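Researcher: I'd like a structural prediction for the single chain below. Treat it as a standalone chain; there are no partners to consider.
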Amino acid sequence: MFRENEEHKQQSFFSVENLLPKKLWEKLSNSWAGTFYQEVFCRIDETIFASLYSDKDSRPNVPVNVLVALEIVKSGYGWSDEELYEQTTYNLQVRLALGLHNLTEDIFTERTIYNFRRRVREYAEETGINLMQKVFEQITDAQLEAVALETGWQRMDSTQVLSNLARMTRLELMVSVLQTVHKQLRESDQKRVEKRWEPYLEGRPHQVCFSIPTGETKNHLLTIGRELDRLEAELAEAAPESEALPLIRRVLEEQYRREAEGALQLRPGKEIETDSLQSPHDLEATYRVKGGKEFRGGYVVNVSETADAENPVQLITDVQVEPNQTDDAKLLEQSLDDQAERDIEVEKVITDGGYTGPKGEEACEKHNVELRATRMRGGYSSPNKWGWEQYTWEVDEEERPIGIICPQGCQGRVIQSQVEGNVLVRFEIEQCRSCPFFKGKCRVLDRARVGPTMYLKLRVVEVARKRKQLHPEDTPVRVVVESTIRSVKRAFPGSKLPVRGLIRSRMMLYLAAVMVNARRLHDYLSESAGEITPNTTISLSFFKIDLRRGLKHIFRHFLKILSTFRLQTANTSLR
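Model: Treating it as a single chain, here is the predicted structure.
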């Protein structure tokens, strides 16, 4: 039976506050734990999880806000479950952060946290709703409102993380698939194939493959493929509901192809797509090469944060986690859609070149957001030719090109091509043939019947015009988000998560972002506590430079005091 936890708001004789000396209590309550308790724990809406529990009268649930806060702390510090249990048992800061003020209070068992995670994961599988994402959004929205942050100006970046998988060769992958399929079969089917599969079932995949000579790898891959093909036909007829059937079919489709006579052949490596299976233990992790580095079996994490210079502190506003071959422009679209649903107003977004392109531009136009990219992908020119951005383009009211001026001042007229999306540009013969760059740096081709002609796609014109509108001056603002990315991943050495699967990866990364915001708020409140006291006055020294700058300084100081007051008022009401 679901019941909200209100006990943390009640004082007990055995509470930490009553048992510790005053100075120690003040130091403890002013640590990160005090901020976490006030700005995260007390903001957790437990009713989000009510659907996980029975409506019948029964034993009350373990407090949901404690369980969620445990997951946040675990994601923020990278603790194992054993370390989490130990820290919660003996660390006063962690107990305060979790609202466990009473030292005689029992805490969770490890089985309780396992069951809670399982319920959240199963709920996400059934409904498509990740409750930890709802927690992140609900807490973050409350924090943004409490500090009165401006969200109109944001910056965004993405990074790669790895699932908790072993790096495998192609043969190791197929052996692992065979072993997984064997475990998923009924006992009778296991015994039927056990003798044929025996060489591949004894030991872990890397142990099995260690004894296989390199020259025999292809033969073993074909043998495993034929065994899976044979089993697929048998299961399709005798046990179409088998758990192993989808995995078998996926692997056969990705790794093999059938010849005309029905024979099974191994696909060359270049034919295998990036979204192919990387491990039977994580069906959603994909493959990607980025910056010359391979990421086998991982996900991409996209982070958005506020970037207004007037904000006293910047917070993460949104997070996306998808298979790692997902395009950045798609992540931009998801972020703007998600924030629009939460009524977060976004006016401009600073990104790198990965978010540019038709999809990113369409997403920004949909939400009336200015995309301020510091770089742009696509449209690069050969070093032997003039870059497209060096031409001057004349367009009509609908942004369609009607004329062009080359870097040497030659004018051309645009003619619509018979091929959709393409145009032709005609130049004057006398102008072009007298130009010293004709047939050199110039892109114009000399056509005997029609004269100097340029063939190009409309997208080239669009990219060239947008390249002139880039904002490299925003680079110092954009690069700060790279530090935020590192903060989100700080608990995961080597960018490798301790979990597998898209749902569990999302759960950890959403909550890691909550911890980043909590740390930032703690730094902000600690700084404000040192500056803002009951005796705080506004010094006339603000006017030393000039009246306008002095008034602006006063206004900023007033906003800082107001935001701190709002946080303290909200915290008092929560208590």
